[in-house]
């Protein structure tokens, strides 16, 4: 097997891109390239986003992954990572989500922040919060390109753009004056199937990185390490507080994001 330095990042990114476009599973990159590092993986991720940009896609956001204990336990990986979101990944509430063309998608409840200023670097929670101008509920649809959607290593999942597939934003809530208030928010994730509404999972927003703002602080640092900036106007998904749920035909999922004393917002995704 060639070692990772002799095989180009673009070649590996192309392999993942083809698996995505053909909706088929592929073997983990580290099976053929066991010495792949997290840094190699971010270069492969960037090459993959470059391919999508060449196909006309625009970067509209970033996502943090593996920020909660629940997700770390589900995936057996224990470090926060980031991925990039493009306009073609964004779903609309008025259009049903189609399973056709996906591999093994899962949905998870998220808090999304919109940036009013560019974000990158070593920031305090106060500085990171100043970069935010909107807060909204979001449902992220993950779809790993790897066989079985499991047991991959950190370099594998980073190279695969942190399992990004699609995302749906709900309506924005009032931005709290202080980031500490976000810790008191609550996420309830429901399934609606055959006229039955069932609670899939619920969590305090505190489950996200210990405090949701710390997920944004981590993103700013990770972006700087990659020489990147999240521009004003882009959205950031902070990472799920609870495990992802497999999507199947006829299943609708709903996230209810509640801000004590300030109401709430919900967002629904229906899989066809
Ligand atoms: C990796 C992506 C994790 C999150 O919110 O923690 C993620 C995966 O679970 O495949 O998006
Ligand atoms: Mg996520």
Molecules bound to protein? 2-oxoadipic acid, magnesium ion
SSE string, helix = H, strand = E? HHHEHEEEHEHEEEHEEEE
Helix-residue proportion: 10-25%
N→C terminal distance: 41 Å
Overall shape: it is: globular
> What value does the average pLDDT take?
94
How does the major sheet shape up?
A: 8 strands, mixed
> What ranges have pLDDT less than 50 throughout 5 or more consecutive residues?
none
Structural class by sheet pairing and helices? alpha+beta
Number of E-type strands? 12
Number of H/I helices: 7
Based on CA atoms alone, the radius of gyration comes out at 18 Å
Report on the architecture of this protein.
Strands 1, 2, 3, 4, 5, 6, 9 and 10 form an eight-stranded mixed sheet that branches. The model has no long low-confidence stretch (mean pLDDT 94). This protein has seven helices and twelve strands. Helix content is 25%, strand content 29%. The protein has helices spanning 9-21, 29-32, 38-54, 69-75, 125-130, 154-159, 212-225, and strands spanning 59-65, 81-86, 90-91, 106-115, 132-142, 164-169, 186-193, 196-204, 235-237, 245-246, 252-258, 264-270. It has 272 residues and is of the alpha+beta class. The structure holds 2-oxoadipic acid and magnesium ion (MG).
